[in-house]
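User: I'm preparing a small set of examples for a lab meeting where we compare how different chains pack in three dimensions. I only have the primary sequence for this one, and I'd like the structure in token form so I can line it up with the others. Please keep the answer compact; I'll paste it straight into my notes.
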Amino acid sequence: MSMSTQIVRPAGAGNETLAVLAGCALILAVAGTVVTLRAAPAQSHAVAAHQLDARRDLTAAEQGIYADLRIALEEIDAERAGAARLPAVAALADMGLPPFAQDASSAQRGAHVWTLLADGQTQGYLGLSADSAVAASVLLRVAAPAHGHDHAEHATEDQPDIWMHRSAQAAPAALDAAQLTRAGWRQVVARFDAGVTRQQR
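Assistant: Understood. Below is the structure token output for the 201-residue chain.
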């Protein structure tokens, strides 16, 4: 009776590993294709020559003033309550409302001197900068409560009508957009592209 020896090798995992890796590669390829096809194109909205982009073209101090004026406009509208005349600068300063209140923050942002201007149906707050290297002079135009002739030029409800001039040392001769542009004033606008926010669909 002869003895025979049979060698039984353990089941190899090589084929199974290859199958798993191939499956993972297939999933990644499909996912990458879907993401590439569904990605929104990067859209950038250029601003006009007479405008400044609120995110890209302003100094840190100017961005702070711009943000303060956006908030202040709500308080100004509430104080105005349909009256023809805007609240006085002194009243806004007494309320502690930035940027009209004279405090350490205003001093660091150009120490603007604020005055109330009026030009027909248009009124505005002018802040002349004491240091144009830190921040430009600023103008917040506010339309009349009624539908005046200049109303269409003014900003929408979600974007205030703010202008800046980096070398202005005196009040503008007029507050209409055309004359402000000719005098070197530039309107500040907020433009958002795909890199900042996604449009809701």
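A couple of notes for your slides: The first helix runs from residue 14 to 38. Residues 51-189 form one domain.

User: Perfect, thanks.
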